[in-house]
Amino acid sequence: MLKKLTKYEFKATGRTLGILYLALIILSCVCRLIFGLNSFNAPDVNFATGISSLILIFLYGMLICAVLVVTFLMIIQRFWKNLLQNEGYLMNMLPVRSWQHIASKLLVSVVWTFASVIVVFLSILILSTLAMKEISMDFFREFWTDLMEVLPHIGFDGAYLIIMSIVILLLMTASEILQLYAAMSVGQTQNRYKILCSFAAYIVLSIIFQLIVSLLTWSTGTFIPDGVLMTLFSTSVNTAIYAGTTIIAVYYLAKCAILFFITNYCLKNKLNLE
Amino acid sequence: MMNENILTCRNLSKNYAHLSALSGINMNIPRGRIIGLLGPNGSGKTTFMKIANGLIVPSEGELLIGGHRPGPETKKIVSFLPATDYLPSWMSVENLVRFFSDFFGDFNAEKADGMLKRLDIDTRARLKTLSKGTKEKVQLILAMSREAQLYLLDEPIGGVDPAARDYILNTIITNYNEDASVIISTHLIADVEKVLDDVIFIQNGQIQLCRPVDEIREQEGKSVDAYFREVFRC
């Protein structure tokens, strides 16, 4: 069932984002080609070309904003409209458990978040080749060979750090999305002012997690004797890195779990469709 | 197992801030009946349907379907037709047929295709391009193409023309198996009266009456429609 839900979730969201991605890549290629023409560097740039290039740059900036904003809005709108508004009648009549709804939406949202960021980077990369005298694949080939040369030497510590960074990034993204889900799930339990209550719930959740972080930092400073920390950090930088990344990962994992639980509890026991 | 009631309500109540939508409903719906849930606007019909499908939770009491509270187990055996426009408008009719076959083990796609063809509905059309009446027909066809044990139809014929209305009611009575029950909520009594076995009159969240249709005709000497007008005279 999770697989089917995810499939339909991708179908429902893919069209809009796919078109936006395509438009952004095409526009950055167009910009690259036009600005790459020598006439732009010539001193006799006339008014018409100046204006049109300005418009092009403006469009490009707008499109980048659109990709990021639409991704964000889609994460909210898919959950709100598809589960808690009219379409919720359909989704909630399916013989599916509420955690499966949340998991499928979360998975798809995380994928789109990463995809949007990657597409934006890719388009900037396309434009950045402008700085090079000529577009040559040599640059990328060199980058690749350098990377391949370095990789075997990073060792276990390096690999651990890279993997942990990715894991933390994923968990952070998931926790941000889940915080939106949890806020909406709490907000919809009210009979009136559902949207306002969702906002309020989001703010309260933010404050709570802020407090937890402050409390954790404070307690580390207070309860762990300085000596312990000093020895830990002085023995090796690696130990500190291991300890640090693990603590961060565990924190975000716990945050995800708490928010998932809140969302699931509300959807399972407190559903309140209009 | 098969002899027990398909749906049971015990002291079922739903309160909103200043209003009690359902108060202390007790009833048993046996298998193999077509039941009309009849009442004026705002009498609690939709609230009942929503509780039975787990879209809202009761304030007090409970509702059981086949012995379970509304949840994934009951949703497997209940075919629900909501009164609102609930299908995603970007999907085409054939997308929806596939969606239903994917998620409901008891969905009969051939039956759905047959009915869509019979009512001349273009299956490639997106839902947002269809008229209100056609959309309602699609919704009803999807609900009736399941081989469910309980059909909960909330205002199923409101926006449909009289000719299609007859076809749809016919489909309802010919499509369900003898162990299944159908609950139809409506205020268009004259139209549905001929297919009903029992009627439940509901008003202000309370059950006023629960009787077999034949009994009303014999003892009161009038149609359900006329009897309804008498009971709920304004």
Task: Describe, in plain words, how this protein is organized in 3D.
The complex is a heterodimer of chains A (274) and B (234). With 274 residues, chain A is mostly helical. Chain A is 84% helix and 0% strand. The relative contact order of chain A is 0.10. Chain A is globular, with a radius of gyration of 24 Å. Chain A starts with a helix and ends in a 5-residue tail after the last helix. Chain B is α/β, with parallel strands linked by helices. Chain B has a single domain (7-231), classed as P-loop containing nucleotide triphosphate hydrolases (Rossmann fold, 3-Layer(aba) Sandwich), CATH 3.40.50. Chain B has a six-stranded mixed sheet, sandwiched between helices. Chain B has a three-stranded antiparallel sheet with strand order 2-1-4, with helices on one face. In chain B, strand 6 (150-154), helix 6 and strand 7 (181-186) form a beta-alpha-beta unit. The radius of gyration of chain B is 17 Å and the shape is globular. The chains are: A mainly alpha (274), B alpha/beta (234).
Relative strand content of chain B: 25-35%
Number of structural units classed as domains of chain B? 1
Query: Largest interface, counted with CB-CB under 8 A?
Result: A-B, 24 and 25 residues
Broad structural category of chain A: mainly alpha
Radius of gyration of chain A: 24 Å
CATH-wise, what's the superfamily of chain B? P-loop containing nucleotide triphosphate hydrolases
- H/E topology pattern of chain A: HHHHHHHHH
User: Tally the helices of chain A: what do you get?
Assistant: 9
H/E topology pattern of chain B: EEEHEHEHHHEHEHEEHH
Strand content of chain A: under 5%
What is the percent of helical residues of chain B? 25-40%
Mean of residue pLDDT values of chain B:
90
Outline the low-pLDDT stretches of chain B: none
